[in-house]
Amino acid sequence: MADKKTYLFDNQRNVQLVLYTLYISCGILLLLDFVIHRHTIHRWEGLLGFYSIYGFIGCTAIVIGSKWLRALVERKEDYYTRDELSQTEEGRHVDE
Amino acid sequence: MWMSELPAFVPFFLAALLALVTRGVLRSLLMLGIVTLSGLHLWLLEPDVQVYLPFLDYELMVYRVDGLSIVFGYVFHIAAFISILFALHVRDTMQHVAGLLYSGSAVGALFAGDLLTLFVFWEMLALTSAFLVWARRTERSYQSGMRYLIIQVMSGVILLAGVLLHAAETGSIAFDFIGIDHLGGWLILLAFGIKAAFPLLHTWLTDAYPEATATGTVFLSAFTTKTAIYALARGYPGTELLIYVGATMACFPIFYAVIQNDLRRVLSYSLINQLGFMVCGIGIGTALAINGAVSHAFVHIIYKSLLFMSMGAVLYRTGRIKATDIGGLYKTMPKTAILCIIGAASISAFPLFSGFVAKSMIMAAAIKEGHSFIWLVLLLASAGVLKHAGIQIPYFAFFAHDSGIRTTEPPKNMLLAMTIAAVLCLAIGIYPKMLYRLLPFAVDFNPYDLTHVLAQTQLLFFAILAFVWLNLQGVYPPEKVAINLDAEWFYRRFLRRVVEHVSGWITQLNKSIRALSLDRVDWLITYLAQRHYPTGKGAVIRPTGNMVLYIAILLAAYLWLLLSFPH
Q1: Do residues B203 and B245 share a domain?
Q2: From the CA of B122, how many Å to the nearest CA of chain A?
Q3: Are residues B253 and B231 in the same domain?
Q4: Residue B244 distance to chain A (closest CA, Å)
Q5: Residue ending a domain, choose from B185, B210, B235
Q6: Which of B319, B368, B383 faces A59 most closely, judged by CB atoms?
Q7: Which domain holds residue A62?
Q8: B19–chain A nearest CA distance, Å
Q9: How confident is the model at residue A7 (pLDDT cuts 50, 70, 90)?
Q10: Any domain includes B494
Q11: Count of Cβ atoms closer than 10 Å to residue B162 Cβ
Q12: Domain residues for B543?
């Protein structure tokens, strides 16, 4: 795999560029809450930055929850197949 | 319209028949042409057709087109066209025929006007789709397909039982509102629930879809579950139970999806999550909610097949699909990567993409009907969709660590199929009226007001921010070669162990009974041998006189009996 070509995201500057664009967009979106009058239905929706905070915390909670779940349900890859498959084809995937 | 009474499944079965006897370009043209014509035919149809067929004592309504079924009919045709196009390069008659029969069965189930017709197509869906799993021709896919088929057929059997009870209780087999106020209704709901991947009944999906062929999964992702969603929308709109079932479905798969290694399994979990939104909408049951569920099913079929296609393309080109094995593929598959990102943006419901215009209807309906908690759950699920399908799929496949794999773009037909799906995603997202015109209820809903757009954009951008932050902190769960237990543990491990124990016990019992019997037989042989050996008692040679003595005793006994009882 001697691939010497440099691709778009091999250059760390491009990665940084994407990240900074994201940070700035987030900042602007948060600030827009102060400027734009929103027509909300639910009481909480009206809170400043509700969606931003919910999105951030929600996502973090999902990831943390997944880590706990993984600790609980993770098994070796051949957990089922070592019983189910005959020895010759153990874990092997053949594609068309 | 000419031949408006021609049921829409007939062209599909005809195409399957023709695909069986043709080869190469001719077959490709026939398959695509017939599906296109069938779609156009449906498009020109006025939605109030009913075709009856007498069967025994019943008058079966084998074909009924109305406002609800026709929307699904359109999108099923689109999905069939895209899936066939995506599979054109495959040189496997079985897959082509099975794909067409499967799509045809789905269309048949969709336009079934009575429950018996529905049952027939319901079982055909099960049988024909199993071939798409088996078509991979590995032992693993064979077993997975078997488990899939058993569960699917079970759904059909439960459906039939429910239909018979329902018919006995209500005296009608018409497929209209069913409800859960009688046992038949519950059984039918259970049957629909199995196909709609209700929690704990969902494992056939996450088991079999990742095991099917690269092209077969695209078919699978479109039809089975959405037929069930249609059936729920017709039979159980406004059933409150479905709101909670739907919310559960929208939530729990997220956690599983984040830790899956097989990317097509991630998409399978994400499929359940999307179904959750639809089931929730059906449960809420207002015109807005049903419209939301239907339009979500519509756009979902398209972007989900786009995502499955992009992963299919990766699998086809690299032979791998586990996050630990791939990565950095954007370098050699940039077009596929971009198309995948469009699908990912659509499923995440970014404004201007198709998911947004559909999902916001369900969210709006939930909040309007005062289901605040459900709304919050769905909002969390929306952030979760972005996490596992929106980011995880494109990120782990095309970016993340560079696996060193250098490949090429997939064949042209695959790229074209993905492009069509991507264009549809964008077109519906940018011009939602195109979709809203088709919906069963008149629509007065504008997704593009500032409040909606800002809220959704904030939610998504901050969810991405959380992903980036967690990733930089190293908290994000790394890709790992492993599997995760799910409800399937019950039958793949627990029941297996039970069966093993019971059969072991029976074997043991059988063995000991046999041993005991053998022991007895041995004893008998020895006994007889001992008696009849030269020295044994049975082997003594007795003189003829002995016999005369015995006869004399016998006659004496006879005489005594005769004298004692003269009558």
Answers
A1: no
A2: 29
A3: no
A4: 19
A5: B235
A6: B383
A7: 8-86
A8: 20
A9: confident
A10: no
A11: 24
A12: 501-564
Q: Is the pLDDT of residue A55 over 50?
A: yes
| Residues of chain A found within 8 Å of residue B364, distances taken between Cβ atoms | 41
Q: What ipTM does the predicted assembly reach? A: 0.87
pLDDT tens string A16-51: 999 999 999 999 998 988 888 777 777 778 778 899
Band (pLDDT 50/70/90 cuts) for residue A88 is: low
Last residue of a domain, one of B193, B217, B235: B235
Is B142 within a domain?
A: yes
Residue B145: other Cβ atoms inside 10 A: 22
Of the CA atoms within 13 Å of residue A64, those in its CB half-sphere come to 9
Q: Kind and range of the H or E element at A56?
A: helix A50-73
Provide CB contacts within 8 A for B359, sequence distance 6+. Answer: B277, B292, B296, B349, B382
Chain B residues touching A74 at Cβ < 8 A: 259, 480, 482-485
Which residues of chain B fall short of a pLDDT of 50?
A: 1
Chain B: give the shortest CA distance to residue A76, in Å. 5
B404 three-class SS: coil
- Which DSSP symbol is given to B374? H
pLDDT tens digit sequence for B436-469? 999 999 888 888 988 889 999 999 999 999 999 9
Chain A residues in contact with B465 by the CB 8 A cut-off are 22-23, 26, 55-56
Contact B258 A42 (CB under 8 A): no
Chain A nearest C-alpha distance from B319 (Å): 6
Question: What is the DSSP secondary-structure string of B250-275?
Answer: HHHHHHHHHT-SBHHHHHHHHHHHHH
Is B213 in contact with A83 (Cβ distance < 8 A)? Answer: no
Residue B495 within a domain: no
Domain membership of residue A33 (yes or no) is yes
Interface contact flag, B455 A95, Cβ < 8 Å: no
Does the distance separating the beta carbons of A66 and B458 come in below 8 Å?
no
Which residues from A are below 8 Å from B258, CB to CB? 62-63, 66
CA B54 to chain centroid, in Å, comes to 31
Amino acid type, B528: L
- Same domain, yes or no: B258 and B360: yes
The pLDDT of residue B388: 85
pTM of the predicted model, to two decimals?
0.90
- Contact list in B for residue A40 (CB cut-off 8 A) is 451
Q: Is B350 helix (H, G, I), strand (E, B) or coil?
A: coil
